[in-house]
Design goal:
Layout lengths: L2 H23 L7 E6 L7 H22 L1 E6 L6 E7 L5 H14 L9 E5 L2 E6 L13 E9 L2 H17 L6 E7 L7 E8 L5 H16 L4 E7 L3 E6 L13 H38 L5 H10 L7 H7 L8 E4 L3 E7 L5 E7 L4 H15 L9 E5 L5 E6 L7 H4 L2 H4 L4 H21 L3 E3 L8 E3 L5 E3 L6 E3 L14 H4 L1 H5 L3 H9 L6 H11 L2
GO molecular function, one term: protein serine/threonine kinase activity
Organism: Prunus armeniaca (Apricot)
Enzyme class: transferase
């Protein structure tokens, strides 16, 4: 292997070790996106709307780091922005700030619409051009069922019992309740629940929201997990203890960490504003330059005639008509389902819903990139379907799913001893090196995080989700750096301005890393 390749591997190893250690050191901020919903009305003045949105997020950020809740109003007239964010009651302030930072990075996907809401497993955020603070019911209210495990009647009874207790106690307890009830006759098995109303609701509105939400959510039984995503509240039950331990937030060390993370959050707000501004410029540029048939249409015709093409009916049958019981997860542009083909092969299907040319282009971009790259540490694309009501990507199925399910779960985490963690780190680094240096087309993934590292039956790492990837020719040394994904790519602007060392050392803590190690991290981030 070339000397430069060894250097790249060592840099990726260092960064991935840091990410794994951080995952062990923190409580679970539960930053997994459950659902994002956008309003139907478009903004009419970007030059006013975007600054108002960014200012509202900044104001909310100040409140979140001290109380776990924030609301803000900026602007006037039709360009007024109303924002609200709240972390669920079991999150520490540190985990709350991390969850909020993720939420406000994802919510701008709703632009150019005037508002939207996002439910994460640890927090909630909403932005609109009207005051919504007292709303507790709406047309988008729904339950989301998870996990494919059917539970016993005894578990159902325990789940109903603990949910009812939460509905009764939360309204008079500031809108928050959590609980656990042991399953009768089952050793070491319990039903867990979390209920949280937004703090803008009065006691009566909170009660009505939770009563409606609980009825809807309990419809998920006998499945082992369910969530209720309601206008005024959030509920979740599970057979897994997903709740964080309730500890005080008053220690000086915790306060210092929260302040440090809040500085990063402010930088993320700035980055989001820049990204939205770039989107506006790019959209206008494309409108002026578009001529002839677009690339997406050309790709669609090519794929229909290729061996990668699956019939929509084949995939629909394999997933049980996209049965909620087969749902594996939710991504930025679609939902992932497990399926079984007629020949017995297990597959993972990403179901994408496109409402504009940009997202359709992402679909064909992903097919173009993944189909041309093969490596033992990259998820294999089996094919796609683009002739049905929505576009589908078909991947190999990996039974252990994503790395974050292990590093943020105490029980599953025991499976990953240090030898196995080392194998995952090396495997992920080798996959990245192949993308960067050894494939025909050089690829920058731009969204490496634990949830995008999948594990096969032997817990070997495979990099997934190339939807945000961007390729460039061998003779080009730079690509455009529109912000996408997680905190790591958000540090690129800081690196260009000579602030990478301060940016990243604030995130990981100066006391743990030597200066030369921090400089090495910055070199990895800027590649």
């Amino acid at each position: 292997m070339k000397k430069c390749s060894i250097s790249v591997i060592s840099q990726h190893l260092l960064l991935l070790k840091i990410l794994l250690l951080l995952g062990m050191a923190l409580g679970d901020p539960r930053t997994q996106t459950v659902q994002i919903t956008c309003s139907k009305q478009r903004e009419h003045n970007s030059t006013v709307f975007v600054p108002n949105f960014v200012r509202a997020m900044e104001n909310i950020s100040e409140q979140m780091r001290t109380s776990g809740f924030g609301m803000a109003r900026t602007g006037s007239g039709p360009d007024t922005n109303y924002g609200l964010a709240q972390c669920y009651g079991d999150l520490s302030l540190l985990d709350c700030v991390l969850c909020y930072a993720e939420a406000r990075t994802v919510l701008p996907q709703c632009f150019p619409y005037t508002g939207g809401r996002i439910y994460l497993d640890g927090c909630f955020m909403r932005s609109e051009n009207y005051t919504f603070y007292e709303e507790f019911r709406g047309s988008d209210d729904r339950a989301v069922c998870g996990n494919t495990t059917r539970k016993s009647t005894a578990f159902e009874e325990s789940a109903r019992q603990v949910v009812q207790r939460a509905v009764e106690s939360a309204p008079s307890n500031g809108g928050y309740a959590r609980g656990e009830v042991s399953v009768s006759g089952m050793a070491n098995e319990s039903a867990y629940v979390l209920a949280d109303c937004w703090r803008t609701l009065d006691e009566n509105s909170c009660r009505q929201c939770l009563e409606n939400a609980s009825v809807s959510m309990l419809g998920c039984l006998p499945w082992s997990e369910g969530r209720a995503l309601y206008t005024g509240c959030f509920m979740r039950y599970s057979d897994r203890d997903f709740l964080n331990k309730e500890v005080g937030n008053g220690s000086s060390r915790g306060t210092i960490i929260v302040i440090v993370v809040s500085v990063i959050s402010s930088l993320v707000v700035l980055v989001v504003g820049v990204a939205i501004g770039f989107y506006i410029w790019k959209h206008r540029y494309i409108q002026k330059k578009r001529r002839g048939s677009n690339d997406a249409e050309k790709w669609a015709k090519t794929l229909n005639d290729s061996s990668l093409n699956f019939k929509y009916s084949t995939i629909e049958k394999a997933t049980g008509s996209f049965d909620i019981a087969n749902k594996l997860g939710q991504g930025g542009f679609g939902t992932v389902y497990k399926g079984v083909l007629a020949d017995g092969r297990e597959i993972a299907v990403k179901r994408l819903f496109f409402n504009n040319r940009h997202r359709a282009a992402d679909f064909y971009n992903e097919i173009n990139i993944i189909s041309s790259v093969e490596h033992k540490n990259l998820v294999r694309l089996l094919g796609c379907s683009c002739a049905g009501p929505e576009s589908l990507l078909v991947y190999e199925y990996l039974p252990n799913r994503s790395l974050d399910r292990f590093i943020f779960d105490q029980e599953r985490g025991k499976t990953l001893n240090w030898d196995k963690r080392y194998e995952i780190i090396v495997g992920t680094a080798e996959g990245l090196v192949h993308l960067h240096d050894n494939s025909k087309t050089r690829i920058i993934h731009r969204d490496i995080k634990a949830s995008n590292i999948l594990l096969d039956s032997r817990l070997r790492a495979k990099i997934a989700d190339f939807g945000l990837a961007r390729s460039f020719e061998e003779d080009k040394s730079h690509i455009s750096t529109a912000i996408a994904g997680t905190l790591v790519p958000s540090s690129w602007p800081a690196d260009r301005e000579g602030r990478c060392l301060q940016f990243w050392s604030a995130y990981i803590g100066d006391s743990h890393w030597k200066a030369e190690q921090q400089e090495q991290i910055c070199r990895v981030l800027s590649t």
